[in-house]
Amino acid sequence: MRIAALDQGTTSTRVLVVSDNGSADIQLSLRHQQHHPHPGWVEHDPLELLNNLQRCLEATGHVDAIGLANQGESCLAWDAQTGEPLSPVIVWQDNRTSAEIAQLRGDGGEALTLELAGLPLDPYFSASKLAWIVRNLPAAQSALRAGRLRLGTTDAYFLDRLTGVFATDVTTASRTSLMNLATGQWDSQLCELFGVPMETLPEIRDTVGYFGEIGATPITASIVDQQASLYGHGCRNEGDAKITYGTGAFALTLTGEQIIRAPEKGLLATIAWQIDGKPTYAMDGGVYDASAAVEWAGRLGLFSDFSELAAFDEPPAIGRQLAFVPALSGLACPHWDRSAAALWVGMNGGTTRQDMCQAVLEGVALRSVEVITAMDGFLSVTDHLSIDGGLARSPYFAQFLADALQRCIVTQRFDELTAFGCAALAAKGLGVALKPPRNTSTSFHPKVSAAQAQQWQATFSEAVTRCRDWR
Length: 471
Known about the structure:
By secondary structure, the chain is α+β, with helices and mostly antiparallel strands. It has helices spanning about 45-60, 100-105, 110-115, 125-135, 140-145, 155-165, 170-175, 190-195, 225-230, 290-300, 355-375, 395-405, 415-430, 450-470; strands at about 1-10, 10-20, 25-30, 45, 65-70, 75-80, 90, 150-155, 165-170, 180, 185, 205, 215, 215-225, 240-245, 250-255, 270-275, 280-285, 325, 345, 385-390, 410, 440-445.
């Protein structure tokens, strides 16, 4: 048996083919353009993404089922009859709706989103983006009047175009701010709050189920990429957690059957997956800029090859009072402050490029510590935290994270856990359990005292306060 997992991410589209004998190989990976028409705006071309998905499908050969992992909060509008995109894909990083979000918050709207959707008001989520499309794009307005407007996250667009099924899964819907977390359905009060016509939204389905066919091959799972990664890491029990270091860093911890609402700590209640009508819940905490901050440092000329970030001669920069707060897109959990600015603190005439690179890696790690610390206040997060993604390949980063967090960090050498989790869920749709991929992991244990780690956190917290005061 062969299962294809389409992983449509922020910077690339890739397809992993997993066989029931344990093999798992990327068949094709294609990067796409990022468009920034105005400061703070981030867009993709829907047709470019769709074309890349189709090319990936062509590269798989015969497969028995397909799973689709998507970006989460990225969304668009299209015509129900022609399939023509009526907007660009507005990417999860985009903050064009900051003013509208501030107005809703000022009017007291956040109490409703926290109560019903489990989410704070933030441009990150899809609802305000979809409302922006309806308010500002004449093509979308015309389609709405004609009863032809479709609004949705990228998965709904892909499924509609590839299979003719206008649907999304419950994990993706839970990232819009339009779904009632308790019922798993669109909520009329939330749609009215944002100004999104509920009739234009796709049907919400289980994560594992039927999403149509491409040719004769069924799509049997659809899921947000971070939830797919959680499944791919093997997390199944309450307290199991992972952090994936991609463009941003996303920590998820399973909470089982309970919805943990922790808005005062900036943690999001979300759905990990839903199978046979039974939801499994999770807590989600995000860092907007992880690899994005590292790539930015590379563009500044601070390093020329990722191998330079594997080790450093000097002790941690934070211990030498040099800190970097990676708030290039603002701060997510636990602060939720899109106006915060990235900030260096403690540079002097002797600061080197290597020092600055250390501070960038440490800043991403210390932001991750803020997220996991917030989660620890509500349940016992595993003392063996699994991480993957680009930054996990840096031994310096993994060891510093272990030191700062004071727990074991396990790095996964198999890089495609998001796609594998998606494939495993798709196989489950056929009643098959996939073997985990052949994987080598490395464990990093704390080498500094708890007191030293606390001092680092205190220094970093001062820097975060400064970055939030900077306007």
